[in-house]
Structures are given as C-alpha cells and as structure tokens.
Amino acid sequence: MKKVYTCFCTDVIHEGHLNILSEAKKYGQVIVGVLSDEAMIRFNRFPTITLEERKRIVEDTGLADSVILQNEIMYDDVIKQIKPDYVIHGDNWCKGPENVIRNNVIENLGKYGGELIEVNYTYNENVRKIDDNIKEKLAMPEYRRKRLRQLLKLCPVVKTIEVHSGLTGLIAEKTVVEHNGELNQFDAMWLSSLCDSTAKGKPDIELVDMSSRMRTIDDVMEVTTKPIILDGDTGGLVEHFVYNVRSLERMGVSAVIIEDKTGLKKNSLFGTEVEQTQDSIENFCDKIRAGKSAQRTEEFMIIARIESLILEKGQEDALKRAFAYVDAGADGIMIHSRKKLPDEIFAFCDAFRKENMHTPIVVVPTSFNSVTEAELAQHGVNIVIYANQLTRSAFPAMQSTAVEILKNHRALETDSRLMPIKEIITLIDDV
Prior knowledge:
globular; eight-stranded parallel barrel; 44% helix; alpha/beta; 17% strand; single chain; TIM Barrel; five-stranded parallel sheet; Rossmann fold; 18 helices
C-alpha cells in the first residue's frame, strides 16, 4: 500500500483538516505528522495544549493510520525517514512566506519521484471562528503571562522588538519572513519608556507615569497575543513597584525589567556624559525581594538591569551585582553597554555563565548592532531586545513626508515611499 503523509500545526481539528485526511485516505496509508512545540512557534503559532494532546486529537479522528512527531518545520528529515509516495497539503501555502516550505517538500519528493497533492484550502465561517477563538485564548492573561517562560525553554534566543501602539504591536505580531530557507518572526514585544514617551511627545524622564504606560499596554494587548516585556525604568519607590508588579501581573504582562539607577531618569546611552547615580546593591536587592514577594503567580518575571558597564564601573562590579540580584530573587539579568563592539558584553556573559548556567541573560544590541543573535547565544544570551528600531525608522520617514508636502504643495511626490492604505487596513483584523 502506498504511503501518504500530511502534517498539522494546530491545537484544533476542524473540517479543513478532516477534508485533507479524507482526501489522503483515497491514496493509501495515512501518516500524520504533528509539529513539535519548537517547530510550531517558528510557524508563527503557539501551542495552547501539549504535544501529546495534539497527537491524540489527530488519532481520535480515526482517519490516521499512524501519528508521528515532526521536529522541524522543513520536511527534509521526515521525508527521508518515511519516503511517502504522496504528501498532501492545502493550497494555502502557495503564496507568502510559507511557500518556502512547499518548495522544500517538492525538492525532497523529487529526489525519488514522490508527488505533492494540494487540495483547496478550507476557510469558511466555522473555521474563522475556531481561529479567532484560539487567538482570543492566547491573548488571555493566564496564557500570555506564562508565554515568555515557555519561549525561554523552546528558543535558542527569544527575539523581541519594541512596540509603542496597537499598530506597531500588529507589525510585531504578524511580520513573518522567509530567508535562507527558514521562516522567522518575533517572539515577544518590548514596551520601552523611551518609545512610549517619544510617541506621546514627552521626554524620557519617567514623566509618563505608569497609569499612562498601562493604557499603552492595554492598546497592544487588545490586538496581539505575543508576550510583553515592560521597561519599568528604576521601578520607582519600593511601595509603588510592589503595586505595579501586581497590576502588571494581573494584566498578563510576562516580565518587567528594572534598572539599578536612582534619581531623575536619564537615558543609559548618555553614560557618563550626564550625571547618573547607581543604586546600592542592598537597596536594589530589597526592591527585587519586595517585588517578588508581591507577585501572585510563578509565571511573572522580574529582571534586573545592570548599569555598571554603562557607568564605566567595570566587569567586577557588574558581576557582583548580577550574583547579588539573582540571590535576591531576580528571574533574569539584563546587561547593558554603549560600546560599539560587543566584547565587554561577551566577557560579562562568559564570566556569569561560569557561575550560573540557568538564569536568563537579556541584552539590547543598540550600540553594538553588528552582533548576530547566534553570536550572542554562543555566549549564553537568552533574550535579544531590538529596543527602539521601529520608532527610529518611523519618525524620519514621517518627517521626510511632511517636508515633501510642504515643498511641493501637494502629496504626489510622497507616493513612492508610502504603503498602500489597503495594506495597512489588511494588517488590522476585522471584529
């Protein structure tokens, strides 16, 4: 009997999947692959049930002769393993980034004469409702809040990009690219005080209070599902920090990062050019302990940001603080630098990892932006935050457009740099 292979990346079996299985039955023995958690997130999907549960729902259809695990998003290994006569899939992957997976299947089948069968993709009102229900589930606080910890177990590096509005949140949520035969997307979102303040036309000096920051969080949460890491500046007074931890946790924020500085907030990239005061180790540890005592779930993370390298106090001071903050309960360490090369970041990470192999390390490669995620991962980095690139790219574009309109007394000259309004509208989901 001929072998037919299909693979599902889903938490729910709907009529579209059943159609594929029924069609597959016509050609022979049906083998169904279920994507691993690691592969599923590269597909811009996130599991809400366990792998075993996903396998079971396929088995329960009664249409699969066997169910196997597919570890990679590409089909190289699984096709080599089972050599199916046919691979069957919906025709929804013919366009867009997923086309690279289709090409991978065709290439592998072509090595021995296998055939790809594509069926009309089923997308009706019932399927749409199922998709919407999954998105709504992922957006709920109890699912979103724990997602960062889950990603840290699944990803070599958690790719995080700044957002400061619902629209930028949608860009972070929906941008998927194919590059070098792989699918890539962002895993998490960073809400920085700099970008939030800038979007409101205010200086980054903690002038925008937490109540206003929370409105931005709510705007982003309303239209996205990915986990949020919040820039908490210094955390403020301990009494305020405790209250904010409980509020953020309840909203479904995954983590807050607080920096060990005191006084009026100054952007770290100014370094010693402006007066900046670092908190004592004892005081900052007390703040961490108070925050950890206040939280009500084990999912929420408090990450300690160390400013020692920014303030040119050296590696020894940075490491001393890192170990103390972890002992005080910090769930992660962020190390910051304004150097153009990543050398001091690498040195810190290597030294920290000699003593601590498990606590997540966060970096923000704004100044040392030539370093790759893979290079950072080699030194033990777990989370990479692209902290302000969307903001910094948007404002020059908007200013340039404004100048062109003023110069030409019309908008025609700006057309070449504008995204069609239809593309913007399609980014936004209908209610």
